[in-house]
């Protein structure tokens, strides 16, 4: 059974940084690309970043490019999202996903001074 568990969310000031983590289990982790999404109340879940199964290529939404970095550790079955220079428009529940079909429970990020 696929299990994804996000952590690392919290309260950060505008311009601050957070690193989110996602622990994966129940599938052959190094066979799958992994993704991060964000959902805010009243909006659809929004794509943030994707990393290839080997970790050698990444793709970002325009809003994340240059500020966020997705990475993974296939030895530990972990995927990460380093977020820098967060803006007040970016709070929400952040989810990691396998193939946009399996989801964790999410981790809340609040951006406020």
Describe it.
- The N and C termini lie far apart (40 Å).
- This protein is globular.
- β5 (46-51) and β6 (58-60) form a beta hairpin.
- 0% of the residues lie in helices and 50% in strands.
- It has no helices and eleven strands.
- By secondary structure, the protein is mainly beta.
- The strands form two sheets. Strands 2, 4, 5, 6, 9, 10 and 11 form a seven-stranded mixed sheet that branches. A four-stranded antiparallel sheet has the order 1-3-8-7, with no helix packed on it.
Short description:
The protein is an all-beta fold and 113 residues long. It contains no helices and eleven strands. Strands 2, 4, 5, 6, 9, 10 and 11 form a seven-stranded mixed β-sheet that branches.
Please tell me how large the radius of gyration is.
Answer: 13 Å
- Tell me the span between the first and last alpha carbons: 40 Å
Overall outline: globular
Number of strands: 11
Largest sheet features: 7 strands, mixed
In terms of per-residue confidence, which ranges show pLDDT below 50 for 5 or more consecutive residues? none
């Amino acid at each position: 059974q696929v299990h994804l568990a996000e952590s690392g969310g919290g309260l950060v000031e505008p311009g601050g940084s957070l690193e989110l983590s996602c622990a994966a289990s129940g599938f052959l982790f190094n066979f799958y690309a992994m993704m991060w999404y964000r959902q805010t109340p009243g909006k659809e879940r929004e794509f943030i970043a994707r990393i290839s199964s080997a970790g050698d290529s990444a793709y970002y939404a325009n809003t994340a490019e240059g500020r966020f970095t997705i990475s993974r550790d296939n030895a530990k079955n972990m995927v990460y999202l380093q977020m820098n220079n967060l803006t007040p428009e970016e709070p929400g529940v952040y989810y990691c996903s396998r193939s946009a079909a399996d989801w964790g429970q999410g981790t809340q990020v609040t951006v406020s001074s």
